[in-house]
Write a structure and sequence with these properties.
This protein is of the alpha+beta class. Helices cover about 40% and strands about 20% of the residues. β1 and β2 form a beta hairpin.
Amino acid sequence: MMLGLLSLLTIVSLVMAVGAKRQARTIIAERLRDLSMDVTEWRENYKKLRENTDSDSLAKARMLARIIQYDPEILKNDARLKELASVLNVDSLCVSDGEGVLIASTEPGFLGFRMASSAQSAEFMPATKDKTFELVQDPQERGIDHVMVQYAGVARLDEPGIVQIAYESGNVFDYSDIELMREIMKALPIGHEGRFLVLEDGDDPVVFASGDPSENGCRLSELGFRLDPVLPDSVFIRGNPYFYQRVQIQDEPRRAVAVMPKGEVFGARNRAMAFLLGFFLVFFALLYYVLDRLIRRTVTDGFYEVNGVLDKIIAGDLTQTVNVRSNPEFLALSDGINTMVSGLKKNLTDSRRRVKRENELAKSIQRTLIPAPGRRFANFEQIDFVSSFMLASHKGSDVFECFVTDAGRPGFVMVEAIGDSVSASLSMMKFRAVFRPCVPPASDPLDMMNRGMAVFKDEKVFKNQFLSIFVGFIDPENRRLDYVNAGYYPPFLRRADGSFEQLRDSVGTVFTTAHPVEFRQESITFGPDDMFFTCSNGIFTYRDREGQLFTKNMLLSSLNASKKDSAQALIDGVISSIRGFSGELPPDDDVLMAAIRFNS
């Protein structure tokens, strides 16, 4: 039904559009006849007027030539020249020598101008050789300054040269067809707001005359004149759509077009279509209302009740039951949903138990990978090294281990992998078992990492997996820490000024056997009060009650505010800051921390 209605409205709209265009063309044709008659009549009058004005202009030029013949000294007197221009009722006078160079003028800036240098003034050059030469030009731009003028000129009588008179500005228009053509256009609108436009030729035509005076003298581009790329008889002017037709005005050589606002051309059609559309909308609204009441009574209310219960079940309330029995179909649907919810409740209970067991197993494995918090390397009195950890509720993927090499150097390794629950914990156990043999013979962190890379590659362990590893070797005698950071979070160091800074340049490539990796070893020599702190990314998964994350700036503030007389005090200060921020909320990932300082 809707498709039929749309088809009917489309056909009616097209038929009425064709009729509206035909009527618009009829109106344009009638106004064009009136316009052509007015233009023809005015052309005849203009021709007679032009003959009279040209004769008058030549008479004034001849008189000026005669005056100069009898009194050549007048050319040297600017005041007398201006007085003579006023007596002749012209705007300016110009006189040249036999070479066409202006030697006298009421416009001082024109003196010395060579008339042969521009097309407009060069038309008078024959007067320097022909005493009978006379010329009245059409109004045009003056060559010297491009002002619209009309010149009349004759040959000098006293010696070779040219005598000219000129009408400028408004006086030129009095002798041209511009103003009268514009008045005719203004007096002959097409309909209410349609109009004719007469255009000058050019790539960007200028409006010579228009029924809208504000468009006179404007270029089409300035009016936003643009042909519609889809409809050949449509055009846009200043963003508004118009019906468009090319026309030819009798006795007018310039191009002309007729435009009418589309709202005016298609106004009747649009009103008729609005009426039809409104009628059908009211009809279908009434039909919809009747059908809606009928369907709601038999079907929709039951669906609303079922959906309401389902929304509560989806939100997590599994105590809800569906009890819609208005017809056999709803009865079967209710029983099916109730059976499904009952099975879902049983499965959720079993899943919760299984997840709880897995998390407990993962935590027990994780605790074997990370030693209890406290001081390390008790046998090295000059080393104050403390580590700590905070486990997440559902992830376990970190390793922390301390060691002493065969050469007697204490060291530690911190490892973080992506993953959670039992699988990640088992992977880290496997990593520690394979990595441990690389520790005793290693001479420094770089040697230990390279040995580990070779073992993992030969054993094909962690193929195409990525780990973040931090390995540090401590030199107690020289108070130095040598380390390799393979993608671990950048550590922090406190220097003599008492504030901590992050060692961003220490982060290297992550540990992987997928492709060759080159590690870079860094060293830190500790001053009397220097302190080193490192941690895993898990520290930034703590959230407060509003869900805001713990940030690096918060960590820096905590480090700077903590007591710095021992590594344990620094660790305790960071933990206290975290607890104050998040309360009892656990992190989303395991957190490892370590702090190092050298005793005096």
